[in-house]
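TICKET #2291
ISSUE: user wants both folds in one file
ATTACHMENT 1:
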Amino acid sequence: MNRPEKIMHPISIKYKLETNADLGEGKLQFYVGNQDICSYKKNNKIESYSWNLFCVVTWLCENIEYIIGYDPFPLPVSGDNIQTLIEEADKFESDDLVEEYLWYNAKSIWIFKHNWFSCREGSILPQVYFRRIENNIEIYWDNDFWEENGIVFRAPRGSALVDRKVFKEIITNFVNSFLEEVSASTNDKKQMERIENLNRQLALIED
């Protein structure tokens, strides 16, 4: 895959919460250009991503500082995109078991902070990576994992660059909208504390 292409209308996020369901349950569409990278085909039927969206929102709040801030790929490998970096890192071998453990542990920790797949909680969430390149954010997705389960994403793999400030604005607007909506729908003390904690995390990176 070549260096990701910078697109003029980079991303948009749409969501809709379900009525008469657990707080936060709903559908999510994440558009890169004109492609909804969360949409997939299962049993010959097109589906939108549907789950409790707190999983995605919580991951974003906890990790957006690493995505828009300074958290480069931690290993001494070269590549123009996330795919190449990971492929090159996976070639590492060492007779020193500790050295090999430290190498792959560093890779795993970085992936956990830059790929929201870890928050899927059993849902059919696409495997999407985010990382900063200068003043842009690279978005890279690859869903070979799901094809093995008979699930084919409509945009199975791809990569694009998005202006960092635009990315931050789109993400924070989505999270703020979601948190405002769920806050207005509950009086539960634990849920309100959860929402407030997420608001505090997001406020750390807002201007």
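ATTACHMENT 2:
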Amino acid sequence: MIMTTNRKHQQQEIGKQRILNNFFTVLLLIGASASAKAQVRNELSDRKWLIEFGGAVGLFTPFQQAKEDKILIGTSSLTAIQFNYKKQFFGRLQVGETRIGFKNKTSYGTVNSDINVAASNLNVGAFVGYHYGLGNWQPFVILGAGPSLIGVPVTSFEPETNTVQYKTDTRTYLHATGGIGVNYSLSRSIMLLLECQATSLPGLPKEPSTHLEGISALINVKISL
């Protein structure tokens, strides 16, 4: 009888020990899983590189306005992919287009030519920048350069046929662009961007003036990839 009671007691103790072991094993597994998830979240939030993609539209105002006409205002648009490094530094590749009114008057003896159309340029640029986080706000500065493809309407005169010919003269120039702006985080993956860019074309002939050097005010939406 005593031996039977001792066996039951030993079996009960063994059962309790197994329950405790299983309980602590479950706790360890839960803790390890939570730690792994936290580590993944930290790695995602603290990773060195972050890629963003976005597009922008806005208004363009040239540095030099036409003296005899109303204030010229054009349009700007761009598409960009941005590579952020350590939340402060970033590089950007962007393709943008600017369109604005173009006027040119030319006289060929008794024949007058009056062009009133739109000039445009296609800018491709590589940029570097720095932004600083202030909560959901991120003010930034940016500087870059690249080729600019410009199409300018031109005229020529054929005296034998007394004909004025019109065509588009397309050439490539170098542009230099600097800008300031601010990002606002709408969520972890979507940001609203307000940016002002100033573009200069040092080699662009002044006559005929195309008014494609100026300031663009842009609004952009970026998505983190």
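RESOLUTION: both attachments delivered.
EXTRA DETAIL ON ATTACHMENT 2: The longest helix spans residues 2-46.
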